[in-house]
Here is the input.
Amino acid sequence: MRTKLMGLLCCAAILMCSCAQNTAGVTERKTKLAPSFAPLTEIRAGRRNLYIIVKNLDSDYWRVTLDGAKAAGNDYNCNIYYSGTYAESDWDLQAELLDDCVKKKADAVLIAPDDSVRLAPKVSEVYHKGIPVVLIDTTANTDDYNICYMTDNLIAGQNAAAEMIDLMHRKGYDDASPVRIGVMVCTTTSQTINERLAGFFQYWAQNAPQGWKIIQDIRCFEGTAEETVPYAEALMQEYPDITGVFGTNDCTTAGLAKALEENERTDIGIVGFDYSDEIMRLIRNPDFDASTIVQRQYDMSHDGVKAAMQIINGKTMPVKFVDMGVVVVNDETLHSVKVQKVLVHN
Here is the structure.
């Protein structure tokens, strides 16, 4: 079993470095420049100015994140400005935004790094200029930040694999059935996605029946749910024996869900990440088998603003990392109190 596990993890790492960025017949997405910082809260004189930088301004996930920051700005009496990128590979644009934060004499910066490795030197640079840095959703490969609020993505990936195994059983597949799972990622550079994949592969190798396989042709595309649909459809067409699909973030999950719905592929189960109208329609539709791992991104930014204000006022954070946890949402858990407390912000 250990040999199988290590083989799968190594394979996952190789695929993350080499997975195709384009599918035949689909136009590659072009970079869209990051907008200038704009007010997220009412701007009042005499208040501290905090700047938040997110990964994808077109994403429902990040809109909820900004909602949390906005509410915290009102709760903790500070001005919040926001900007971000439109693709999770545009780390260089985030670096430019960090430079702009320095020029604007930000009192603190909250950022979700597009690339944990390449953006680390710039995060360190801002931190060493005496500006508090709070990481949200994703860490950076440096100790030069004050605190990070995010999901433990290795554990979240394990949760997703456990849910996929349960979902396949709920669909009626036994241990001898030829289960085949397709995977779609949004980027090859995100530590968040790499950790989710590692957790998923690890749990799958240790717990899935021997004959159940993950299709090693991991598909990669970053964009909106609508833009992801042709990639999802291509995956299902090229692997006619596919029984389940795994989306590793909000846009890939929404795109996969949309493709399943539009093509009426009730034979394929889906486990994804985050909340979207697309995945929730499938969860509520008894003809489909769908689940999603929902994070607490509203709390990440809300707690992040609170921490930034505490740091500005001289408090030292007792820890560097706070795991915000996740909830598994499917047709059985949807109306539970625990899930509804998380979904109220989505």
In short: The radius of gyration is 20 Å. Residues 232 and 256 are 5 Å apart (CA to CA). Residues 1-18, 20-27 have pLDDT under 50 and may be disordered.
